[in-house]
Design goal:
about 270 residues; AB hydrolase-1 domain-containing protein; Carboxylesterase_BioH; about 40% helix; AB_hydrolase_fold; AB_hydrolase_1; Rossmann fold; alpha/beta; 7 strands
């Protein structure tokens, strides 16, 4: 079971604002710290109170990390629900990858001011990606344990960069960001592989944005349509960006497009 109160990192706006707060939801094999590199300072400077939830078993809490494989998608949904409830007003959810799936499932029972899905897990799950990687990038599965356990070699770095980051990402930046990758729950990974297609008629009817990178190797931009269609959402493709939109050299473009959408909600 997840902790009764999830870890929520708070980053107040640099100046008072009436903007809705932003609640960032990280993806699989990562943690909340990836948002604080570029995105959170960017939005703090523009007057947004920012929060980042640490899903159970993630981050730098060893007691929770020891039980990582006990947690599944339902536990992560409970974390997000608790985080939303704890905030003073209804937030805009900004989710990445697995965090998009968690947010969509949460919105079947809860609500938010709006939601942005960045590089979302497709409605049919991750099985297609796993099959494609097995055929085209088998080194990924061999090197992933080295990446998440801190035993990365030069080959590990090249493989992770090819899968997760923009082709224009400098090698030294890949090294800098590798510590943000961590193990993921085997239970959650298995649940995403076989995620059934869901039609949620009672889902919250809120504004939605679907964003992805044109160079995303994990969930190609052509797959964004399926998430966008189910949410009647606007689609935004960031030219040259990979799966890690918030870290890639193209992050200012991604943040700027996200800002335009946030301002359109007023």
């Amino acid at each position: 079971m997840p902790a009764k109160t999830p870890v929520i990192h708070r980053y107040p706006a640099y100046q008072p604002s009436t903007q809705p707060p932003l609640l960032f939801v990280h993806g699989g094999y990562s943690n909340a710290a990836l948002w604080s590199v570029h995105f959170i300072p960017y939005f703090q400077n523009l007057g947004y109170d920012c929060y980042a939830v640490e899903l159970s078993g993630h981050g730098s809490h060893p007691a929770d990390r020891a039980h990582l494989d006990d947690f599944g998608i339902d536990d992560y949904i409970a974390d997000l629900a608790a985080a939303v409830t704890s905030l003073p007003v209804m937030p805009v959810l900004i989710a990445h990858s697995m965090g998009c799936l968690v947010s969509q499932r949460f919105l079947e029972q809860g609500t938010a001011h709006a939601v942005a899905f960045l590089a979302p897990v497709p409605p049919t799950g991750t099985g297609g990606t796993a099959s494609r990687f097995a055929l085209t990038m088998p080194d990924f599965f061999a090197e992933l344990p080295n990446a998440v356990n801190g035993t990365a070699s030069e080959k590990t770095m090249r493989t992770m960069a090819r899968v997760y980051f923009s082709p224009s990402m400098a090698a030294e930046e890949t090294i800098q960001y590798l510590p943000l990758i961590q193990p993921e729950s085997e239970k959650a990974v298995a649940e995403m592989l076989t995620a059934p297609f869901r039609i949620a008629r009672s889902r919250a009817r809120i504004p939605a944005l679907v964003m992805g990178g044109s160079a995303d190797q994990v969930f190609p931009a052509s797959m964004l349509f399926f998430t966008a269609a189910s949410w009647h959402a606007r689609t935004q493709i960031i030219d040259g960006a990979g799966h890690m939109l918030m870290l890639d050299p193209q992050w200012p473009d991604a943040a700027g497009k996200l800002l335009e959408w946030l301002e359109s909600l007023a």
